[in-house]
């Protein structure tokens, strides 16, 4: 019995020691916390900035209750988690970003944060300068001076169930790396909803609407970029719903656009061009291309090749238009009630 | 050690000052708050109306705990946020639940429950502004319409609009609205009603059991536009998607694709008269058990182009009357109706 007790005591001591270490792998912030505290659940900190200093690599920062927790710079692998039911705000002032991620190889997860620009000269909501991967889940990012999420490094970035609204630079911008946007809302940003300079972008089940310059914009100049867009609504954006390579340096790019609602964007539903950068190859299937003042879909670059199948194309000035480049139609598109239904396409055949 | 304490003291003071300066950009309401407070986290207010007056433009009003927070009017850019897990109620005894009325403003409403308790008018009324986001809200039992949009661009997501005496959502005056992942059920008149050049997109939503029709579209001098996809439109005594002419020179463009449309009178009905243009594209829908027709066009100027649809178990599959045209490029599956085809016009794909 004594031996058993001794064992239990030893075990207790070991657990206590383990707990002390566990604090470092999981830290806490609360409205009633203090940044001089150890960020434990009993003695939480007041800000993300203080908590991250006390969090081990691959650890977690948990938000205990509703409050603002300040901007934070992340240079280690960490998750910042505000559970459902808790508002965790980051107000972003002049010249700074809400969350800055900047260390090679780190993996970062942000869940449940509300990032709000409180100065017109604030920078980005989430600024990714270096990292292996960043996941942004269940967040709302609004009113920033520049972009909601800016990726400037070869990082794997996922935005899930996240709202990006009313940012002056645009919603998500990928300068390098890979971006997935799924189940999200990109609304009323002053520039493009989602834009890509290089890398890979996938957009699925997302609402992209009322962005002033356009919905999704791809303008690669170096190595080939890829874009996939599926089950997404692109409605009432500026110049185009999806615009590939309209800038002078545009191309090369490989593009797949399937099963989307592309409705009443300024001039174009899908605009496919290339600059001197290289060829643009696009597959466009099973979309609704409706109500554009210029073209539902247009190939407008000498090195553009588009294959177009099973789309409904209605109420545009021109439905499917080949300006330059090649436009293949499979014979199964329903193209009617446009001032001109099809101009300059090349018929293709199924196997 | 003393030095350390002194240092911490300084930091604490600095944090306190920073917090004070930020208070107005983020205000708080709570069940234990008071409207004589300054709406800080430590001293929250009790009502949205008072919190609004303490909040900067582009600021946020945060709900701390479950309670009712009262009807109010928004005249500046702001986000009202009740996190999931917190019930933030607005009981509407008369007038509107929330009025959004300020030139150029952008407003977000998240996680609110608006409940009509008498001869209220609208749950949310968007009178003037640039942008309104309604996300994760419930609007029920209001005396007139759940949401009335009269301006700007509105996005409704993950929201339930149920049991309004009038319609679920009304969009007027060339305004634009998107409705995604939402539920619009059991309202007295129409689920969604488009007037006068409205431009509405609906995706992944359920529109069911409303008193008259699912989506009702009046033609407009500027064309009224509807695009609806991946949704369910069911159980209406009138049409699931119902286009009605409203005056000479008016028009409507309607796109209905990939929906399940069941147990309505007509699944899709396009009505026009001389001088009115109604164009409907219906593709890849499943339309079944309609009391009258799966697809119905009536009157000169009404055109439906139907491709890739399945139309089963209705009185008519395709019904074109009084000079209207229903085009079919030969890829619709139309069977088990009392009359399958009355009668389509052949068309082709490209």
Give a structural overview.
The complex is a heterodimer of chains A (351) and B (350). With 351 residues, chain A is mainly β. Helices cover 9% and strands 48% of the residues of chain A. The radius of gyration of chain A is 24 Å and the shape is elongated. The longest helix of chain B has 21 residues, at 2-22. Chain B has helices at 2-22, 48-53; strands at residues 26-29, 59-63, 67-68, 72-74, 78-81, 88-92, 98-101, 106-110, 112-116, 124-128, 131-135, 138-140, 147-149, 153-157, 160-162, 169-171, 176-180, 183-185, 190-194, 199-203, 206-208, 213-218, 224-229, 232-236, 241-244, 251-257, 260-264, 268-271, 277-283, 286-288, 293-298, 302-307, 310-312, 316-321, 325-328, 333-335, 339-342, 345-346. The radius of gyration of chain B is 24 Å and the shape is elongated. Chain B is mainly beta and 350 residues long. Helix content of chain B is 8%, strand content 47%. At the A-B interface, β3, β9 and β34 of A face α1, β2, β8, β11 and β14 of B.
């Amino acid at each position: 019995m004594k031996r058993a007790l001794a064992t239990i005591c030893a075990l207790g001591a070991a657990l206590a020691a383990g707990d002390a270490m566990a604090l470092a792998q999981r830290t806490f912030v609360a409205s009633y916390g203090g940044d001089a505290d150890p960020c434990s659940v009993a003695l939480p900190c007041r800000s993300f900035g203080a908590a991250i200093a006390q969090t081990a690599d691959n650890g977690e920062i948990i938000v205990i209750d509703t409050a603002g927790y300040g901007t934070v710079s992340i240079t280690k692998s960490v998750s910042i988690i505000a559970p459902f039911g808790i508002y965790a705000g980051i107000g972003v002032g002049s010249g700074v970003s809400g969350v800055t991620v900047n260390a090679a190889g780190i993996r970062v997860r942000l869940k449940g944060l509300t990032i709000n620009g409180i100065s017109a000269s604030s920078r980005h909501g989430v600024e990714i300068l270096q990292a292996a991967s960043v996941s942004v889940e269940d967040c709302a990012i609004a009113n920033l001076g520049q972009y909601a999420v800016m990726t400037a490094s070869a990082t794997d970035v996922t935005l899930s169930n996240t709202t990006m609204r009313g940012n002056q630079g645009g919603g998500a911008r990928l300068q390098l790396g890979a971006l997935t946007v799924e189940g999200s809302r990109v609304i009323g940003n002053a520039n493009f909803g989602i834009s890509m300079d290089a890398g890979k972008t996938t957009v699925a089940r997302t609402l992209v609407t009322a962005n002033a310059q356009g919905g999704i914009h791809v303008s690669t100049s170096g190595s080939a970029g890829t874009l996939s867009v599926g089950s997404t609504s692109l409605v009432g954006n500026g110049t185009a719903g999806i615009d590939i390579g309209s800038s002078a340096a545009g191309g090369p790019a490989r593009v797949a656009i399937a099963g989307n609602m592309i409705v009443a964007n300024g001039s174009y539903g899908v605009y496919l061009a290339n600059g001197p950068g290289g060829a643009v190859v696009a597959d466009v299937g099973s979309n609704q291309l409706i109500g554009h003042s210029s073209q539902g879909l247009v190939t407008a670059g000498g090195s553009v090749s588009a294959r177009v199948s099973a789309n409904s194309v209605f109420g545009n000035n021109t439905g499917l238009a080949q300006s330059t480049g090649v436009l293949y139609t499979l014979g199964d598109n329903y193209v009617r009630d446009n001032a001109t239904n099809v101009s300059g396409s090349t018929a293709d055949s199924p196997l | 050690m003393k030095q350390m304490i002194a240092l911490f003291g300084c930091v604490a003071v600095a944090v306190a000052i920073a917090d004070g300066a930020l208070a107005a950009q983020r205000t708080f309401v709570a069940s234990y708050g008071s409207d004589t407070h300054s709406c800080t986290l430590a001293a929250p207010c009790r009502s949205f109306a008072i919190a609004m007056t303490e909040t900067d433009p582009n600021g946020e009003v945060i709900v701390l705990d479950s309670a009712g927070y009262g009807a109010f009017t928004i005249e500046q850019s702001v986000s009202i946020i009740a996190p999931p897990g917190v019930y933030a109620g607005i009981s509407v005894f008369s007038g509107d639940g929330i009025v959004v009325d300020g030139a150029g403003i952008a407003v977000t409403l998240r996680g609110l429950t608006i409940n009509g308790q008498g001869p209220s008018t609208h749950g949310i009324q968007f009178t003037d502004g640039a942008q309104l986001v309604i996300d994760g809200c419930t609007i029920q039992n209001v005396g007139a319409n759940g949401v009335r949009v009269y301006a700007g661009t509105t996005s409704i997501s993950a929201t339930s609009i149920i049991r309004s005496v009038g319609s679920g959502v009304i969009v007027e005056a060339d305004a634009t609205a998107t409705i995604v992942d939402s539920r619009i059920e059991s309202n007295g008149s129409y689920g969604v009603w488009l007037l006068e050049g409205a431009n509405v997109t609906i995706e992944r939503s359920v529109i069911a059991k409303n008193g008259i029709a699912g989506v009702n579209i009046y033609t407009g001098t500027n064309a009224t536009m509807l695009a609806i996809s991946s949704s369910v439109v069911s159980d209406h005594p009138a049409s699931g998607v119902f286009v009605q002419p409203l005056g000479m020179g008016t028009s409507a463009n309607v796109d209905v694709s990939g929906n399940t449309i069941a147990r309505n009178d007509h699944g899709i009905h396009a009505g026009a008269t001389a001088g009115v243009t109604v164009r409907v594209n219906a593709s890849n829908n499943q339309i079944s058990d309609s009391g009258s027709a799966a697809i119905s066009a009536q009157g000169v100027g009404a055109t439906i182009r139907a491709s890739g649809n399945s139309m089963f178990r209705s009185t008519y599959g395709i019904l074109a009357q009084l000079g209207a045209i229903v085009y079919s490029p030969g890829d619709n599956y139309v069977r088990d109706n009392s009359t399958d085809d009355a009668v389509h016009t052949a068309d082709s794909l490209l």
